[in-house]
C-alpha cells in the first residue's frame, strides 16, 4: 500500500519531544518528508534521526517561534529545501510559571503569550503565505482542554490556549476557499516530559492525574499524533475551523 502522504511535506514545531516528536514520526510512517523544529537542537536532531529511520527524509531547523525573523527563516528554509509545505503542525508551547493572577509577573506573562499565542500566529502567517503560493495545505494548531476551561494558577497558559482556538477559527474562515484547512487539537493530560517534570517522578501524583481523567488513565503522545494525522488526511476534507479534543472525556 502506498503511504497516504507520499510526496508530501510536513512541518512540526516543538518536535524535540512529546507530542511533537510523536507526530513527526507519525507523518514519517505515512510517507511524508518532515521538517523538525524546536529550540532544543540535540533533541531535535534526535527526532530527525528517528524520522529518517522510517525511510523518509527529514531536516532540523532551530527556531524560537516567538521571534518573527526565526519563523520567517523556518518557513523559507523548509520551502527551499522541499519546495512546499503541505501540512503544518504548530505545536511549540510552554506551560509557564505557576502563580495566582495578582502575583503573575509581566515577564512570565509575555513569555507564555509570546510562545504559545504569538508563536502560533507567526507560524500561520508565513505558512499561509507559502500555502497560498502552492495552492493549498492543512494547518493544525495545538491548543488544550485549557482552551475551553479555566484553571487556577496558570492564567497566561489558559489565555494563550483560548487565543489559539480564536486564531484557528478566524484563519479557517479567511482561507476556506483557498483550499487551506485550519483546525485545532485539544490534548488532555498527556504523559510527556512536562508531566514528569511537574510530578518529579512521584507515582502518587501521576496516579492522581490519571484518576482525574474520565477514561482512567493519562493520554499517550501517539494518540494525539493519530488525531493530527487524521486532520491532515483526505478523510477530514470537510473539516475546518474545528476543535478536536483528545482528552479521555475531560471536557465532557
Secondary structure elements and their pairing?
Elements: E1 9-13, H1 18-29, E2 33-38, H2 41-52, E3 58-62, H3 68-82, E4 87-90, H4 106-134, E5 137-142, H5 155-175, E6 180-187, H6 193-199, H7 203-211, H8 221-232, E7 243-246
Parallel strand pairs: 1-2, 1-4, 2-3, 4-5, 5-6, 6-7
Would you give an account of this structure?
The chain has 252 residues and is an alpha/beta fold. The protein has one domain (9-246): NAD(P)-binding Rossmann-like Domain (Rossmann fold, 3-Layer(aba) Sandwich). 46% of the residues lie in helices and 15% in strands. It is built from 8 helices and 7 strands. The protein has helices at residues 18-29, 41-52, 68-82, 106-134, 155-175, 193-199, 203-211, 221-232, and strands at residues 9-13, 33-38, 58-62, 87-90, 137-142, 180-187, 243-246. Strands 3-2-1-4-5-6-7 form a 7-stranded parallel sheet, with helices on both faces. Strand 5, helix 5 (155-175) and strand 6 (180-187) form a beta-alpha-beta unit. Helix 1 (18-29) packs across helix 8 and helix 4 (106-134) packs parallel to helix 5.
Amino acid at each position: 500500500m502506498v503511504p497516504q502522504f507520499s510526496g508530501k511535506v510536513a512541518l512540526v514545531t516543538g518536535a524535540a519531544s512529546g507530542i511533537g516528536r510523536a507526530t513527526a514520526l507519525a507523518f514519517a510512517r505515512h510517507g511524508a518528508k518532515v521538517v523538525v523544529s524546536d529550540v532544543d537542537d540535540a533533541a531535535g536532531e534526535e527526532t530527525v534521526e528517528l524520522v529518517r529511520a522510517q525511510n523518509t527524509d527529514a531536516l532540523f531547523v532551530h527556531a524560537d517561534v516567538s521571534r518573527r525573523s526565526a519563523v520567517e527563516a523556518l518557513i523559507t528554509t523548509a520551502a527551499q529545501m522541499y519546495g512546499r509545505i503541505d501540512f503544518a503542525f504548530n505545536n511549540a508551547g510552554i506551560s509557564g510559571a505557576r502563580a495566582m493572577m495578582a502575583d503573575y509577573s509581566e515577564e512570565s506573562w509575555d513569555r507564555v503569550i509570546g510562545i504559545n499565542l504569538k508563536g502560533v500566529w507567526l507560524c500561520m502567517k508565513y505558512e499561509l503565505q507559502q500555502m497560498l503560493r502552492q495552492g493549498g495545505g492543512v494547518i493544525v494548531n495545538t491548543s488544550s482542554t485549557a482552551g475551553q476551561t479555566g484553571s487556577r494558577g496558570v492564567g497566561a497558559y489558559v489565555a494563550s490556549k483560548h487565543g489559539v482556538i480564536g486564531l484557528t477559527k478566524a484563519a479557517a474562515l479567511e482561507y476556506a476557499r483557498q483550499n487551506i484547512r485550519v483546525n485545532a487539537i485539544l490534548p488532555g493530560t498527556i504523559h510527556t516530559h512536562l508531566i514528569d517534570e511537574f510530578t518529579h517522578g512521584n507515582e502518587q501524583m501521576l496516579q492522581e492525574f490519571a484518576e482525574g481523567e474520565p477514561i482512567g488513565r493519562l493520554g499517550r503522545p501517539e494518540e494525539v499524533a493519530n488525531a493530527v494525522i487524521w486532520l491532515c488526511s483526505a478523510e477530514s476534507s470537510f473539516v475546518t475551523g474545528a476543535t478536536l479534543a483528545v482528552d479521555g472525556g475531560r471536557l465532557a
